Amino acid sequence: MELKCRLDHIGIVVRDLEEAKAYYKQCFGFDASSPIVDEPAQKVKIVFLETGHGDAPSIELIQPVSEASTVFNFLEKTGGGLHHLAYLVSDFDEAIEHFKKNKALMVGKVYPGAGHKGQRVIWFYTARKDLVELIEEKK
Amino acid sequence: MELKCRLDHIGIVVRDLEEAKAYYKQCFGFDASSPIVDEPAQKVKIVFLETGHGDAPSIELIQPVSEASTVFNFLEKTGGGLHHLAYLVSDFDEAIEHFKKNKALMVGKVYPGAGHKGQRVIWFYTARKDLVELIEEKK
Questions:
Q1: What is the CA radius of gyration of chain B?
Q2: Which of A15, A28, A90, A129 is most buried, by the most CB atoms less than 10 A from its CB?
Q3: Count of A-B CB contacts under 8 Å
Q4: Which residues of chain B have pLDDT under 50?
Q5: Kind of pairing, strands B44-50 and B58-64?
Q6: What's the total number of domains in chain B?
């Protein structure tokens, strides 16, 4: 199988979602392409910004809302910044098998992505140590 | 002035360009959209990969070719990974003034980007500590 991923968004961890959103508008001219959404699976709130390409790819700003959030340690350690790349895949189940065959390590379990209209989401660390989110493309 | 940036590429620092390029092809299905190019201004070699959106945005793989490279310390400290976002701007000189007004710190000097057909390039640390590359859009 040859998988074909399609870049969906760039995840950036921030301390203050509203402040970061305002800065990206002011400095880069980026409008939000979504409302602010709670993602309970990761204990974060998120917002998507368009980057001059219509809906995708976008920037996802991510603010942890709890110390138990998956990105809380990243924020504390680094002060925030570039965190992950997310890709759309047309065949989600095949993509998972393909990534496993390529020695990527699955992180957690499949869940319905609150920021992606409930489409299924899974996370991997690739063999190259890249943190990657795969999102099931809407049929 | 309202500036409008347009995402051009995501820079990822790697230890071995050929190995990383092969992995992105095998795992993600990404083809190279450029030859491997030497960028003497940064003492790196680079290659661009398409990410399912035609020419842009793309992933730029970056390998330092000298310990004096601007990304050598990043590679040693982190093992490599997500490094910067690069944006096309239509009015390059106005964009520089706009970023300065928004308290972004200019890093180095303007130079002709070897990976961008000699179009002018400048780097900034934004007030939010994001490392950003601005590229003059071809008229």
A1: 15
A2: A28
A3: 104
A4: none
A5: antiparallel
A6: 1
